[in-house]
Amino acid sequence: MPALPAQRSTSHLVLAILALAVGGFGIGTTEFAIMGLLPLMVADLGVDIPAGGHVISAYALGVVVGAPLLSTLGARLPHKRVALALMLLFTLGNLSSYIATDYGWLLLSRFISGLPHGAFFGVAAVIAASLSAPTRRARAVAMVMMGLSVANVVGVPFATWLGQQFGWRTMFLLVGLIGILTLGMIARFVPHQDVRDGASITGELGALKRGQVWMTLLIGTVGFGGFFAVYTYIAPTMTEVAGVSENLLPVVVALYGLGMVAGNIVGGRLADISVLGTIHWVMGSISVCLLVFAFAVQWAPTALLFVFLVGAIGSSLIPSLQVRLMDVSPDAPSLASSMNHAALNTANALGAFLGGAVIAFGWGYTAPALVGAVLAAFGLGVALLSGRMDRNRPSVDPVPVPAAR
Predict the structure, then answer these.
(1) Predicted confidence (pLDDT) at residue 377 exceeds the cutoff of 90
(2) pTM value?
(3) Could you tell me how many helices (H) and strands (E) the chain has, helices first?
(4) Cα separations (Å) of 327 from 172, 259, 382?
(5) Mean pLDDT over residues 125-143, rounded?
(6) Are 373 and 206 within 8 A, CB to CB?
(7) Are 293 and 240 contacting, i.e. CB atoms less than 8 angstroms apart?
(8) Displacement of CA 149 from its chain's centroid (Å)
């Protein structure tokens, strides 16, 4: 990787990564804050709760569709231009949600808002990695993902409060303003990079032919499926099993968010030492943590401790997965990296479904944690198999990244 000019080795590069992280902060805020404003939204639009849930699903569907589609379409464009275009689409989608006058308009606007989600994080990860020394790639990627974690601690609670005080639509206005700020910061601080030699739509799509790409996506899907099996039902679990007061649920959510922040920091540092080793360690730790959580949740103090640990251990997996996808598809890093977020949204749906199924069977609110432990153990098995496949094939040299200027 070409060395960057000295003047870009300090504050300018920090600001470039901060610009991308601010975009992640806006994405995380709009993705999760709508859940807390759901009752207000459905009452205003005159629809029922299941219909309101479709608004959340529309965003997730946009993520799954947009990640491969927009990453592929941007293959022949400079990364900075792609990041700007994606953030512009995200901003317009949220401003459209703010002015939406009916349910159908809002549904479409949320789908549009979700389209750039995965592709933005994908190209942001590639930019951050290319601006950093090889030994600090994962930490740079983790700092971009930090925006998503901080959103759960600061952005989501504030946007929820704002929506409660001034109307649920103001959340979308807030996110739109964050998007405008991000556009300005990317334009000012992210350096231009020429298009990589040989980059093409066909080349990006070639990533989907690689078994290791799908293996890594499967690790993320089942690993985070276990994580979401627990978190989706954390509110009734804490109140019904741990005996935590409903008034303390914001504290529970904040602990989870703080865990995500800590996990991102630690996960980035560990991944710079060993990407696959970190995936193996984290997947095993998730399985053990969720298994113990099923018993620790019986008492409020240990339940609160394990909410933090679940958030921390789960989020520490993201940087290594992101870097792993770029490593196993060096000639199509944007598409492979963006698919990570499509996999995580699939994990969200999988975990919520399986967790809800075992509760519906009458196995209680601790059962999702046991399901999650099994899913994480399966993810560890996939990760071990992926590592074995690596050892049995020739190494792939990374594709040179164009110098920033």
Answers:
(1) yes
(2) 0.77
(3) 17, 0
(4) 36, 27, 17
(5) 85
(6) no
(7) no
(8) 9
What angle in degrees, to the nearest 10, is found between the helix axes of 79-99 and 11-36?
30
d(CA 96, CA 109): 6
Question: What pLDDT shows up at residue 252?
Answer: 84
Q: Which residues pair with 404 in a beta bridge?
A: 193
Phi, psi of 70 (to 5 degrees): -75, -35
Specify whether the CB–CB gap between 134 and 140 falls below 8 A: no
Residue type at position 96: S
Q: What are phi and psi of 316, to 5 degrees?
A: -70, -10
Paired tokens of 357: 């199924």
CB neighbour list of residue 89: distance below 8 Å, 6 or more residues apart: 112, 115, 116
Amino acid symbol at 67? A
Alpha-helix residue ranges (DSSP H) falling in 37-155: 38-45, 49-73, 79-99, 103-130, 137-150
Sort residue 78 into left (φ over 0), alpha (ψ -120 to 50) or beta. beta
Three-state DSSP class for residue 77? coil
Nearest of 106, 119, 49, 26 to residue 337 by alpha carbon: 119
With a CB cutoff of 8 Å and minimum separation 6, the contacts of 295 are 366
Q: At a CB cut-off of 8 Å and minimum separation 6, what does 109 contact?
A: 93, 94, 96, 97, 100
CA atoms within 13 A on the CB side of 207: 30
Rounded-to-integer distance, Cα 33 and Cα 153, Å? 11
Amino acid at 178: I
Q: What values do phi and psi take at 397, rounded to 5? A: -70, 140
Q: What is the spatial distance between Cα 334 and Cα 204, in angstroms, rounded to a whole number?
A: 8
In the 8-state DSSP scheme, what is residue 393?
Answer: S
Helix axes 318-328, 249-273, angle to 10 degrees: 40
Highest mean pLDDT pick, 31-35, 243-247, 293-297 = 293-297
Q: Which segments of 292-380 are extended strands (E)?
A: none
As a residue count, the chain comes to 405
Query: Any bridge partners for residue 193, and if so which?
Result: 404
CB 138 within 8 A of CB 323: yes
Q: What is the pLDDT of residue 1?
A: 40
